Amino acid sequence: MAERIPRIGIGGPVGSGKSMLIERVVPVLAGRGYSVSIISNDVISKEDADRMRANLATERGLLPENLVVGLATGGCPHTAVREDPSMNISVIEEIEREHPELDLIIIESGGDNITTTFSPLLADYFIYIVDVAGGDKYPRKGGLGITSCDLLVINKTDLAPMVGADLEVMRSDALRIRGAEKPFVFANCMADQGVPEVADLIVRNLLFGAPPKSRAKNGGEVQR
After folding, report:
1. Residue 190 has what DSSP assignment?
2. pLDDT in tens, 162-187
3. What is the DSSP string of 150-177?
């Protein structure tokens, strides 16, 4: 049996910035030596996967093109990552057999609402991302995605003044709803604000500070 590669699930509403977060955090992880594969779920389209493949693989060469996989699930986004993740698991098992050198697999859910979660059979670490443009009510709405995720990312902070969202209210609500032990990060992914902090938390809380496999063989250290 192939070794299980650590897996991150990334969920959030349509337009919240899931794909953009991946496009920004993968270069940071790659710069530290970590090898990544990406699986992008959507109901009928593979558009996000195609864009990430173009940006991260074809143009920047940060990973092979065949390690960005698009899945058109044909049904509710919940199903493919929670109720019946067999389609994703099948792809992941093939990746694990063919690419044991990978340090991390990122699974992007299709856009959905605040009840999105990932099956523990599929993801070891769950990031949920919301959009400030939706208003400062998001964190206090709760919902499984917001309350149960390992890391909450509050994205598009630059839009707060334009929509009358109060970031301090969002900070206070996130602390109250999630508790002090569950981290959250304010981000503007377009400007890479908050992205290094997300990468730090992934390395610390999912990879437990382990060096990239390529460096571990040579006794190297993780770049900080």
Report:
1. G
2. 999 999 999 999 999 999 899 999 99
3. SEEEEE-GGGHHHHT--HHHHHHHHHHH
